[in-house]
Amino acid sequence: MSNLDRQAELSVCGGRGFVVAEPVRELLAPRRVRLGESTEVRRLLPNLGRRMVGAWAFVDHYGPDDIAGEPGMQVPPHPHMGLQTVSWLHDGEVLHRDSLGSLRTIRPRELGLMTSGRAISHSEESPKSHARFLHGAQLWVALPDAHRHVEPHFQHHTDLPAVSAPGLTATLILGELDGATSPGTTYTPIVGADIALAAGAEARLPLDPDFEYAVLSMSGQAEVDGVPVLPGSMLYLGCGRTELPLRADTDAGLMLLGGEPFEEELVMWWNFIGRSHEEIEEARQGWMESSRFGEVMGYDGDRLPAPELPPVALKPRGRVR
């Protein structure tokens, strides 16, 4: 999914100076962003004072939206570099097209994982015949320097492993959790899991104390380490945890995001993650000149133009501890 803000802001990410080395309970409120004519998203990352969780650098939560009789999601062709996109649905379908020729319909609890590497472009849209409700999350994972120029590729996994406990089922999106491993390709130590809690459930989820974590609430009424987390908000948890207490008053859906703190300093602007102003400027020019990022075939509409760069040079300023 694209960042469709026409006044794109610089996000300075990375560096261990942003990492909380002990367990915390920091509730993050979303910023509401329009995505086309019929979709509004709640942006949790980047957030004021919290730019990343492990390598997770961008988190949008959308829906549930009633799109019966509406076009639903319509995100025109746009570019990416230096990151992976993760498409995750609870309701509805998203049709993915990209400049590699991929054409896949992603359905609830299937993993759509696009690795942009050096350059890719794609579009996302609700199929013309689609379900009534659309509800999901779109996330980006920053690629480390050693892998950020890999060849672009797309993966679609329909059968993902899960771990369970009384009242809890956790589906692995990326990485490892409690002995289960996702088939999705990763380039840094990371974990992403979709957690379904039954009403009245109380459970403890095992964690890696070297990872930092956050939990995004997708639906229902749940408490994370004793903190009520409403749908569309996210609780940052810091590092140093070996387990996470969870409790649900109703059936609830959560997403666990975590990973080893990302040490590299990044520049994230529009749909690009780089390391310098010059890289971002070159990528923008390549997109506007229809070079480097390829062409998305079959989308009924124009490409998304890039916004103007800010008048000052973009610099990575993450503090390194």
Automatic annotation (TrEMBL):
InterPro entries xrefs: Pirin, Pirin_C_dom, Pirin_N_dom, RmlC-like_jellyroll, RmlC_Cupin_sf
A Pfam family this chain is assigned to: Pirin_C
Residue intervals of the Pirin C-terminal domain: 193-290
Cofactor stoichiometry and binding remark: Binds 1 Fe cation per subunit.
Cofactor: Fe cation
DNA-binding keyword on record: no
GO molecular function, one term: metal ion binding
Domain Pirin N-terminal: 41-141
Top-level taxonomic group: Bacteria
Keyword vocabulary terms for this entry: Iron, Metal-binding
CDD domains tied to this protein: cupin_pirin_C (cd02247)
Annotated positions binding Fe cation: H78, H80, H122, E124
Family stated for the protein in its record: Belongs to the pirin family.
PANTHER family: PIRIN (PTHR13903:SF8), PIRIN-RELATED (PTHR13903)
Name the UniProt record assigns to this protein: Pirin
Taxon lineage: Bacteria, Bacillati, Actinomycetota, Actinomycetes, Kitasatosporales
